[in-house]
Amino acid sequence: MHLQIELTDEQAKLLDAKARELGLQPDRLARAWLVDLLTQPDEQFERVVEQVVKKNRDLYERLS
């Protein structure tokens, strides 16, 4: 997939500076950030799932 995003001048400067600091091209840094964001688990969702499982543990054990 090819993705194009629009950044303000200030955002572009920040991205360029951070990329230089890390020795990367700005597009590679942006891609790495996006991949990292998409692959991180949603902590709030996982907490809710854990609460539901704990709440219904007895029911699940009886059904299994």
Comma- or semicolon-separated keywords:
64 residues; mainly alpha; 75% helix
Explain what the structure shows.
The protein starts with 8 loop residues before the first helix and ends with a helix. It has four helices and no strands. It has helices at about 10-20, 25-40, 45-55, 55-64. By secondary structure, the protein is mainly alpha-helical. The model has no long low-confidence stretch (mean pLDDT about 90). α1 packs across α2. It has one domain (about 10-64). The chain is rod-shaped and about 60 Å long.
Label the overall shape. Answer: rod-shaped
Number of domains: 1
Which regions are unreliable across 5 or more consecutive residues at pLDDT < 50?
A: none
Structural class: mainly alpha
- Give the ordered list of helices and strands: HHHH
Distance between the termini: 43 Å
Tally the beta strands.
Answer: 0
Number of DSSP helical runs = 4
Strand content: under 5%
Q: What is the alpha-carbon Rg in Å? A: 20 Å
Largest sheet: none
Rounded mean pLDDT score: 88
Range of helix content? over 70%
